[in-house]
Structure formats: structure tokens, C-alpha cells
Write a structure and sequence with these properties.
Helix content is 26%, strand content 15%. It is α/β, with parallel strands linked by helices. Strand 10 and strand 11 form a beta hairpin.
């Protein structure tokens, strides 16, 4: 064991937890993540505290709940004065390296109105060095690379269209895109990361790799496009019809439209009411997950071959989940487990005795930044809501560990009325929900006078039976509502709340 402390965070966009541990895990091949788990600790009850991509990453990087950082939608600015993992790691002497994207909408108060940074919601989190730009809506280095490889590249809007190998027939979803697997966005990001880190072997580095896949559009290069037989996969967990799902709650009628399955594939037609098409989308998603796993294997091999594996903390997780047809829904802006339950795997080489173990304590995405800071000996700022997981990595769980997770979702937009708002009738500032999820019961509390959802996960793990209006569960509903309120009151922003100005100076302040 050396004194070197390198840190690699790998974020997989939109990967569900049950691809790692659960029903889908039996149907998808992820050999490299499986091998990493034998060398690491797997957290089986890990949850993203919010979604979609921008808000989820804001919570990851700031260690704060959405109710505190308030970057609550894709495109909602993050206040420039918030602490974040990149700025904090700089205090420990690290140069934070970003390969991919942070999805940060920047504070317009910190820029001139003509600054091009204010024309993209996929800005760079302050403090990071953007070694490789791989933003979903830009990706200029990858485009230039493909052109240099001799591809006749289409307009970027058509990059993710499947291409029919037979000009006589229309494209199908499982046709490959114009680029090969060797030159995919996933492969390109991985090669860039390895090339850059290959000349940093004697340094303590901090790198974040953020893969776009398996986030839609769902198109996969060969062989991943036909890797899984759609007919062999389990069907989505859902009520019999979309109409029945719409009756669950006013929110659901909007959720069924935003997004629809038809919107997650380009350049060809699919029908969300056709089960064959639904299964094909699920197969493509798993194929893309396997592609990411392949390149994670390349990174692990590189770390081993370069002698850095036993110096490197590896934190692998997703930013949020994906409905994948469960409850007749697609995407992640819904209150179900599929949207929030995500994988988390941490390899701390300084505690090999715990490698290969699983932790079933509740953990949240806001815990990632405090954990990384703790592992390099850096104190987490006071305003962070997360808790360091280092004691769990050392098999020293503290007393009174949280027995629930707190999750949030905003479903409005400031410049138009969303489908969720249309179905619920709630105004801009009331189009939100908060979730308190215990081991057995899960409360979904809606603002705007909307009725709650209540699920008994012990007897109904699929969340198909809403008990929110059942008089027999009124006491549970009241208990969880009070507990949710207490949690939010306890975690209101305390950046300066515990500081005291006195005649002798400032007390309890940690700059």
C-alpha cells in the first residue's frame, strides 16, 4: 500500500439499479462491473435524490438536496457561490479533470448576457478542468474525431439515427448508427481518459468520467444492437393498460405523455402499445449498458497495467434511473423506484477486507461528494446535506444511520405549461413532489393540494397498489408526512445558520 490517493468517479447516465442487482441483472451481461464488485463495496439501497440529469448532477456535485441547491430543472442555473466537489478537491491540491459533461446551467449573475455559456444548459461546473467535452448536445471533439476517421458525418441531429443496411427497407430501431462500436461516443470517451491518465501515473489525480449511455436516443452499434433477444427479457412491471395507470393519480396522465416511448428512438417508427416494440427498446437499453461495461473494463485494465489500481479510489454509480416501460412510463421524471434506485459501487484500496461485500443501509446521491472528500482527508462544507460513507467502507457503521431516503421532483417549466401541469392543474411553484422512502413504506407527497401516494413495498414491491386513500393506512400516512416535514426542516440550508458572530469573533465557521 502506498500513500498515493487517486480518485476516479464513473457516472453512467440513466442506469437502473436492477441491472446490477435485481431482475434485469439476470438478463444483461456486465462482466467488468461484476468483477469490480468483487474488489469493492456495493451499496444495494442507493438512491438519486432528484432527476433529471441537471438537477441530479447538481445534487451529486454539491452534496445538497434540490430544495437547497435549487438547480431543479435542466436549464435552471446553479448559484455560483455554492460549494462543489471540484472546488473542494482543489483545496486538497487536486486538479479536477472532467471527461464528459457536468450538465451545469451557470449562474447568469456571474456572466455577461452575451456570454455563450448562457446559451447552453450543459455548462461546466466551476472548478473542473474540461479535458474532454462530450456534452449530449455538442460533442465537438467526437464529431471531429469521426470526420478524421473518414466518416461522412451527417448533421448532428441525425447522429443517433439507425441506418438500414438494405436501402429497400426503412430503418429499424435495432439497425446500427453510421459509426462502428470502435468509434462510438463511449469508446471515444474511454480512449481519451486512458490517454490523458497514462501520463499522470506519478500524480495524485482526481478524474470524473461521465458516460452518456444508456441514456436515449436508444441506438447501438454492432454487436450491441442485437446482443439481447427482446423475447427473452422480462416484460415491464405495469398495470394492464395505460388508461389504468392514468387513473392512479392526476400526475400520471401527464407522465404517460412526457416522454413517450416514441420519443426515445430517432429515424424510425415504434409504437408504445406494441409489446414487441417495447421489448426491443428494453433490449437496446441493455445492449448500451453492456457497451459501457466493456469500456469500464478497459479502464480497469489500464489502471492495473499502469500500476495505479491499488492507489485509486473508484466510485461507480448512475445519476438517476429509467422507467423502461415500467408503469407504462419512459424516462425518469416519475415517483417510482425505477427512476430513483441506482447502483453505487465504491472501491477503497485501503480497506481490502471489505471488498466483495454489500451494504444494505440507505444511501443517497448527496453522500458521494462528502465521501470522496473524506477519503482524501478534506472536510465537507457545512451546507452539504450528505453523509460520508467512509465508515460503511470500513465496516464501522455509525449509530442512528438514516432509516429513510428523501427524494424530490419538479415537474414544471417557467416558460411553458408541462404535460404534468396540464394533468394536475397546479401552477409553476406548486408543481413538485417529495418522497420519503423507508424500508417498508414509501410516501409520495404532492404539492398543490394533490392527493398523496402511499406504497407498502414489503407487500407490493412493484408499487401497483396505492394506499394513500385507504383509511386503514391513515396513521401510516400521517406518520410519514410528519417525518417528511421534520426531515425537510432539519435539512433546510445551514451554511451559516450555525455560525455566530460575537464580540470575540466568528464562532463555528469553517471557510
Amino acid at each position: 500500500m502506498t500513500d498515493k490517493r487517486k480518485v476516479l468517479m464513473i457516472i453512467i447516465d440513466q442506469l437502473r439499479a436492477d441491472c446490477i442487482e435485481g431482475e434485469l441483472a439476470a438478463h444483461v451481461d456486465l462482466p467488468n462491473i461484476t468483477a469490480l464488485r468483487r474488489d469493492a463495496v456495493t451499496f444495494t439501497k442507493h438512491f438519486s435524490v432528484t432527476n433529471p440529469c441537471g438537477p441530479s448532477r447538481a445534487s451529486i456535485f454539491t452534496g445538497m438536496y434540490a430544495m437547497n441547491h435549487r438547480s431543479i430543472r435542466n436549464g435552471t442555473p446553479m448559484a455560483d457561490d455554492l460549494p462543489n466537489i471540484a472546488r473542494e478537491m482543489r483545496k486538497s491540491g487536486y486538479d479536477p479533470l472532467l471527461f464528459g459533461y457536468s450538465d451545469t446551467s451557470l449562474d447568469p449573475r456571474s456572466r455577461h448576457p452575451n456570454d455563450p455559456d448562457l446559451k447552453t444548459e450543459e455548462g461546466l461546473l466551476p472548478g473542473f478542468r474540461e479535458v474532454l467535452e462530450m456534452r449530449s448536445k455538442e460533442s465537438y471533439p467526437w464529431r471531429a474525431y469521426l470526420k478524421a476517421q473518414g466518416y461522412d458525418i451527417p448533421d448532428y441531429e441525425r447522429f443517433y439515427d439507425p441506418i438500414s443496411p438494405d436501402p429497400a427497407r426503412p430503418a429499424r430501431p435495432d439497425d446500427p448508427p453510421f459509426y462502428s462500436a470502435e468509434h462510438s461516443d463511449t469508446a471515444f470517451l474511454t480512449s481519451s481518459l486512458i490517454n490523458d491518465l497514462s501520463v499522470r501515473t506519478e500524480q495524485n489525480w482526481f478524474a470524473v468520467a461521465t458516460y452518456i449511455r444508456p441514456h436515449p436516443p436508444l441506438v447501438a452499434p454492432a454487436p450491441y444492437n442485437k446482443m439481447y433477444d427482446p423475447a427473452s427479457l422480462p416484460p415491464p412491471i405495469r398495470l394492464n393498460t395505460p388508461e389504468q395507470q392514468a387513473e392512479v393519480h392526476p400526475f400520471m396522465a401527464g407522465a404517460l405523455k412526457a416522454p413517450k416511448m416514441e420519443s426515445i428512438v430517432r429515424g424510425c417508427d415504434v409504437d408504445s402499445r406494441n409489446d414487441d416494440d417495447v421489448q426491443l427498446m428494453r433490449a437496446l437499453y441493455l445492449g448500451l449498458a453492456t457497451e459501457v461495461d466493456t469500456h469500464i473494463g478497459r479502464i480497469i485494465d489500464f489502471l492495473k497495467e499502469s500500476g495505479q489500481y491499488d492507489d485509486t479510489v473508484i466510485v461507480l454509480f448512475a445519476d438517476h434511473g429509467e422507467a423502461l416501460g415500467d408503469h407504462h412510463l419512459w424516462g425518469k421524471q416519475n415517483p417510482y423506484e425505477c427512476a430513483y434506485h441506482i447502483p453505487l459501487i465504491i472501491r477503497d484500496p485501503q480497506h481490502p477486507a471489505q471488498h466483495g461485500t454489500m451494504v444494505d443501509a440507505f444511501t443517497e446521491s448527496v453522500d458521494i461528494t462528502p465521501t470522496v472528500l473524506d477519503l482524501v482527508g478534506q472536510r465537507a462544507p457545512t451546507g452539504m446535506d450528505g453523509i460520508s460513507l467512509k465508515p460503511l467502507l470500513e465496516d464501522k457503521p455509525p449509530e442512528n444511520w438514516p432509516d429513510a431516503v428523501h427524494l424530490e421532483l419538479e415537474f414544471s417549466e417557467p416558460h411553458f405549461t408541462t404535460e404534468w401541469q396540464k394533468s394536475t392543474g397546479v401552477p409553476l411553484h406548486e408543481a413538485n413532489l417529495a418522497i420519503l422512502r423507508e424500508a417498508r413504506f414509501k410516501l409520495v407527497h404532492f404539492n398543490g393540494g394533490l392527493p398523496p401516494l402511499l406504497f407498502d413495498l414489503e407487500n407490493d414491491p412493484a408499487e401497483l397498489h396505492n394506499l394513500g386513500g385507504d383509511p386503514a393506512h391513515a396513521s401510516t400516512l400521517l406518520r410519514l408526512t410528519r417525518k417528511l416535514l421534520n426531515h425537510r426542516m432539519r435539512h433546510s440550508d445551514r451554511t451559516l445558520a450555525d455560525v455566530k458572530i460575537t464580540s470575540e469573533g466568528v464562532l463555528n465557521f469553517h471557510p
